[in-house]
Amino acid sequence: MEIIGRKTEKESLxxxxxxxxxxxxxxxxxxxxxxxxLIREYFQNQFAFSATGIAKGDRMEQLVNFRNSIRQYDDSxxxxxxxxxxxxxxxxxxxxxxxxxxxxxIFLDELPWMDTPKSSFVKALELFWNSxxxxxxxxxxxxxxxxxxxxxKNIVRNHGGLHNRLTFKMKIAPFDLAETKAYLSSKGINWxxxxxxxxxxxxxxxxxYLDMLDKSKSxxxxxxxxxxxxxxxxxxxxxxxxxxLFKKSEEYLRIVETLAKKKSGYTREEIIHHTKVxxxxxxxxxxxxxxxxxxxxxxKTIGNVTFTYQLIDYFSLFYHNFLKNGPSFDTSNWMHLQGxxxxxxxxxxxxxxxxxxxxxxxxxxxxxxxxSTNTFSYYSPEAQIDMVIDRGDQIVTLCEMxxxxxxxxxNKTTAEKLREKISCLKTAMKKRKGIYIAMVTxxxxxxxxxxxxxxxxxxxxxxxxxx
Length: 467
What we know:
5-stranded parallel beta sheet
């Protein structure tokens, strides 16, 4: 199957493959995002060596698996039993020395699982790279894993033998809307953009989830089948997702559950108050790991020196709005939920998240791609603005998002709220800049006296599907 999207990633892989020195690449990203698929498909499994860690495997199970992987490439390599990771990487050196491949690509997938307690795995990896691989010119070592926190701690921020040894980092992000549409089209699913956007607001551009969609069904039928039927494939995915990424996932889940309750998010102190998770390094680490995996973001609003943490993962937001109380086994549950106040509130919130994750496309539609910008959110008791674009041309663009079934019409009440937001933003920013309003809407804005007098730009949902 053709690799959908990933243009920048494919260019980087080719550059590293063509390098005249040994390269050490770390690939990371959340579970199910397509890290392994990208590497295997790009290199067409033509590796000099490849091995995958075993989930919850102990030290001996990992070593046996590594030894068996070596024997798949050459069963004549050193018949001795592999007693530890130093033996394992020595056997790998022997295998690679015999390899006739001009560029020897090594793929160690789910690397964090290989590092069991007191196994000296990292030390052995350090020795392999520093004493052997880095001295050559024909090695491309690719390490990969969903546990981004382990990779950052043991590879990126390593203070021992791997300090500054990494030559490239590659974070695999979920598909954007254009990539999602292309992926669905490759499966024979050709929904209109609004339905594709709603699908994105549920599944978040995660290829593994998108692959489960049945082209013979509508989006509503697919959602019912995946989440609300007695045989729902994704019924337990929420708990499994966090458990696979984090040890003692219960505290991570408490943080996420808390952040799901407030649109703008909470400060560190508020998270401590609501979750009862103890303050200190443990909380900092958990927040950092959730951010690294793309579940939350942290930001500062105008005039506030402390960070606010906000839940941005679409799948988690969907779960907490519709699934956390358990399945109803109503096989038409999603179709029944559409039109309810809960559904419309979720649509509005998720569409705002979607716009935040497609800032590049919005700036392109506004014609300001070549202008320096600073994009942020502004929340106060008086006004809540999800996207503010502070531009280098002395203009500030206030973005207002509306996800509707029909063309949106600004009425008197909405116009007054927009004027109040402009006033609050001017006071908070303390800058002599013009403030423009950009409405980001599903369909073209209805023209009336309010839209004509207030709105400078109308970005459409279709614009978010551009590259």
